[in-house]
Design a protein that fits this description.
The chain is an alpha/beta fold. It is about 35% helix and about 10% strand. An eight-stranded parallel beta barrel has the order 8-9-10-11-12-13-14-15. It binds 4-O-methyl-beta-D-glucopyranuronic acid.
Length: about 700
């Protein structure tokens, strides 16, 4: 139920329980609150509809006291009621799980109670059932920040880092602490309980003492909301920091160096979570530099961390220029080692076998690694989906992944179940999302990108949720009018029928729209040089690795289009378990959404619709553009329901998205037409731009681009 009445008491968020710790920072947080009225800074936590209640709690820990205050600050049930927060051992609940009933929030731990409180408040505000039991799908629900020590963020579109300063200064201000507290609170409100503070392309500097001291300050703040701190480690740190001649993971001096480093870290941050490591990937150092294996590398870290309860998240994002098909490499490199990793190693696998594309089939490693812990890595920041400009709700994509059936243990072995411990026993279960958070006042660079942060947390907590429910909750929490003052002349039913239903429809169709105007039918990696923003199907300079150029992936030629990954091609299909390998191999049964991912077909190959591949491509691009034009129209009609600032921000981004969708369509179709040599279908809207012009500009700015952007 959404509440539209004026609150009896004005909500005042009390930070009393940790006033001793951050009194001045909290003062700032408190006093600055009103400045953020309409700029999106309060995210989905705009719960100001408060009625006074009495809360009883049997635990005095700081986190439990925060839970009490959150409940008081967000209660929108009846005034004067008494609610009990009870922390007691209950074997039906996991560590972070909770039970809710209308006047009781019960959990094993204070953090569990805090999650229970946030869920309770969300349920009150969105009109959901109040009596439930909830356990998380994954023990560790982590945001990976690709933040550099100089404050920049790799693939970040929301300003600089909230953790690191541009000037490389390690000073911590009260403003920093206030922001970290707000960040921690937002994370905890959706169940996120871990943060990797620095880029996987890791600077060794982060492991030096001055940086570790700053990490401690951050960890001290995040901990209050139950969030563990992790770091990305550079594999070659023993050389750059320890002045050793090698980083060979079997070298006793190297092992000793890491043991000491880990000891030092735990002395400073006793509950440190562990390391995330990108090794032998895209130029990063790793064990293969010393003719050692992923097992040698990962286990060295695992052994150092084990005495302290730390984990190693070892990334499977590996590929090199010599591999005939990049999509095959992670599987080929990791499968031979199944069963050899320590129990505190988790192999972190991107959703698809290539790289966070608008659509990929799931990575064949899911379910295939049976004796090795494995965790999905999702990308919340929209590197390949229009950055902070295009409105693309990613829950649909993640739902598609999590519900994909790997068949590894018979039907129903979904990616979700193969990673959450329900099929394979893993000591640790986890999921990671590459963060989209920065210093922008709305955190994510756009209002709708907040929904992706929200969706990641919700799916990490419950990997069975569907995107429609997540969108429904998020819209209600983020846009429902709060007070009579905000409320123009419309009723709740109007809001539901108009705003809620329509915005939900935009969100739920937005990912498919992007796939259509960017790279439909299984096409992938058609991006322009440098930034992965606009189209560049032609981009292929001689001095660039071929697997970093679009022609490597689309293989458009006079005889047809698509990457042959069948047995007569790269054979990548064989990495999938039956019946998928057979289904994907056969042109009659291969899902059309993956057609050009797995097959190279002639331009006149007929699809189920009866249209040829060429015609179908044209129509997908056309539909993509049409969908975004509809979003634009819909949004304009919703103006009465949204505050001015957020309305205009979304409006202007949609305008650019419509423009860019057109650019994608024209660029890709005109480029492919050079090979298909076929006319556009008669009903297709004609291109607006010339191909030559599009090849000469940067698609983000539409300004002349460097020569590199052009075809060789
Ligand atoms: O997709 C690529 C990105 C890189 C990123 C890499 C990775 C952090 O373009 O910016 O590096 O993936 O995931 O390691």
């Amino acid at each position: 139920m959404i509440i539209f009445t004026q609150p009896k008491a004005k909500a005042v968020f009390s930070f009393k329980p940790y006033r001793r710790l951050f009194s001045a920072a909290l003062f700032l947080l408190f006093s600055a609150q009103s400045l953020f009225a309409d700029n999106g800074h309060e995210l989905w936590l705009r719960n100001k509809q408060v009625n006074p209640i009495k809360v009883i709690c049997n635990n005095k820990s700081q986190t439990a006291q925060i839970a009490v205050h959150e409940l008081k600050a967000g209660w929108s049930g009846g005034a004067g009621e008494t609610v009990n927060i009870m922390i007691k051992t209950d074997r039906s609940l996991q560590q972070d799980g909770y039970k809710l009933s209308p006047h009781l929030i019960q959990a094993n731990t204070a953090t569990g109670a805090l999650y229970g409180v946030f869920d309770f408040l969300r349920r009150q505000q969105t009109g959901q059932e109040l009596s439930i039991t909830s356990n998380p799908s994954y023990q560790r629900r982590i945001l990976d920040h690709w933040d550099n020590p100089d404050g920049s963020i790799e693939r970040g579109y929301a300003g600089n880092s909230i953790f690191w300063r541009k000037e490389d200064s390690l000073t911590v201000t009260l403003d920093d602490k206030k922001l970290w507290l707000e960040y921690a609170r937002a994370d905890a409100s959706i169940g996120i309980n871990g943060a990797v503070l620095n880029n996987v392309n890791a600077s060794p500097r982060v492991l030096t003492e001055p940086y570790l001291k700053k990490v401690k300050e951050i960890a001290d703040v995040l901990r209050t909301y139950g969030i563990k701190t992790y770091l990305s480690a550079n594999f070659a740190s023993p050389i750059s920091l320890g002045k050793l001649k090698t980083a060979d993971p079997l070298d006793p001096a190297v092992i000793a160096w890491w043991n000491n480093k880990v000891k030092e870290i735990y002395k400073i941050i006793p509950d440190f979570g562990g390391f995330l490591i990108k090794a032998n990937s895209e130029g990063q150092p790793g064990p293969q530099d010393y003719k050692r294996t992923h097992v040698d590398g990962a286990n060295m870290f695992a052994d150092a961390l084990k005495p302290y309860g730390g984990i190693v998240m070892w990334r499977a994002f590996v590929y090199n220029a010599n591999e005939h098909d990049r999509a095959k490499q992670a599987y080929s490199e990791f499968m031979p080692f199944d069963g050899q990793f320590r129990s505190n190693v988790i192999i972190q696998v991107k959703n698809g076998p290539v790289d966070f594309q608008p659509r990929e089939p799931f990575s064949p490693l899911f379910g295939a690694l049976k004796k090795t812990a494995i965790m999905p890595e999702l990308q919340v920041t929209k590197e390949y989906l229009g950055e902070n400009i295009h409105l693309v709700f990613l829950a649909s994509m993640w739902e598609e992944l999590l519900k994909s059936d790997t068949y590894q243990q018979g039907a129903g072995s979904t990616v979700a179940h193969c990673t959450d411990g329900s099929i394979y026993k893993q000591q640790y279960t986890a999921i990671a999302g590459v963060s989209n958070i920065g210093l922008d006042s709305n955190w994510c660079g756009s209002n709708f990108d907040q929904a992706n942060w929200y969706a990641f947390g919700r799916l990490a907590w419950n990997n069975q949720l569907n995107s429609s429910q997540i969108a429904d909750e998020w819209i209600k929490l983020t846009f429902a009018p709060l007070t009579a003052k905000d409320q123009p002349a419309f009723k709740k039913t109007d809001w539901n029928n108009n705003f809620l239903t329509r915005v939900k429809n935009i969100m739920l169709t937005s990912r498919e729209a992007a796939v259509n105007y960017m790279m439909p039918l299984g096409l992938h990696h058609l991006f322009s040089a440098f930034r992965h923003y606009g189209p560049g199907p032609w981009y292929a300079p001689k001095n660039v690795r071929t697997d970093w150029t679009p022609p490597y992936y689309h293989k458009a030629a006079p005889d047809g289009i698509g990457f042959d990954r069948t047995q007569s091609g790269s054979g990548a299909i064989q990495q999938y378990h039956e019946p998928l390998a057979t289904q994907f191999s056969d042109l009659k049964t291969c899902p059309e959404i993956y057609l050009l991912w797995f097959h190279h077909v002639s331009w006149d190959f007929r699809l189920k619709s009866g249209a040829t591949v060429w015609e179908e491509l044209c129509h997908h691009y056309q539909n993509g553009v049409a969908s975004v034009r509809d979003f634009q129209k819909e949004w304009d009609n919703l103006q009465p329901y949204v505050d001015q600032q957020r309305f205009e921000e979304v409006q202007s981004k949609l305008r650019k998205q419509c423009h860019d969708a057109q650019v994608y369509k024209d660029a890709c179709l005109l480029y492919f037409q050079q090979y298909s040599k076929l006319p556009f279908p008669s009903d297709l809207e004609r291109p607006i731009y010339d191909l030559q012009y599009l090849e000469s500009i940067d698609p983000l700015t539409m300004e002349k681009a460097p020569v590199l952007n052009r075809r060789k």
